[in-house]
């Protein structure tokens, strides 16, 4: 089961990078920034099942790790204005960051799997990913709004 999960996570990382490259060819919209965390939030229904519930310490640890991981995503996500539209800049570092986060995440998962039961570990890694995505998207939203304001100032002049 652990091998299947790791392979699935690797496939998701590859898909995410392909998707990211395609998305840089299209203008960014508010909807594209806000919707992914909203869609992902439905995964929190896993906590209804007792096996996935976390202690306060596990919640805090997962949130801190998610915030730390989001820093790397935030640093590699910059916007640019082309043809009076806002685009996400392509970043070679983004692929490296995603693959590094995947390796670190897998290593931590292997280390913790002997001390934390599978359900709680799954709940923790969902929370890590969710906090990482939400904080990254909030930073993207702030950057997008700044670029939108800059674009309006240039258009007015």
Structure, described:
There is one protein chain. By secondary structure, this protein is mainly alpha-helical. It has one domain. The chain is built from five helices and two strands, in the order αααββαα. A two-stranded antiparallel sheet has the order 1-2. The longest helix is centred in the last third of the chain and has 39 residues, at 118-156. The N and C termini lie far apart (59 Å). The mean pLDDT is 87.
Compact overview of the structure:
With 157 residues, this protein is mainly α. Helix content is 72%, strand content 5%.
How large is the radius of gyration?
18 Å
Low-confidence stretches: none
Give me the side-by-side strand order of the main sheet: 1-2
Largest sheet: 2 strands, antiparallel
Helix content: over 70%
User: What's the total helix number?
Assistant: 5
Total number of distinct structural domains = 1
Q: Which geometry do the CA atoms define?
A: elongated
**How many β strands by DSSP?**
2
Average pLDDT score: 87
Indicate the structural class.
Answer: mainly alpha
Binned strand content? 5-15%
Helix/strand order, N-terminal first: HHHEEHH
Whole-Å distance between the termini?
59 Å
How is the secondary structure organized here?
Layout: H1 2-23, H2 30-40, H3 56-75, E1 79-82, E2 85-88, H4 92-112, H5 118-156
Antiparallel strand pairs: 1-2
Helix pairs in contact: 1-4, 2-5, 3-5
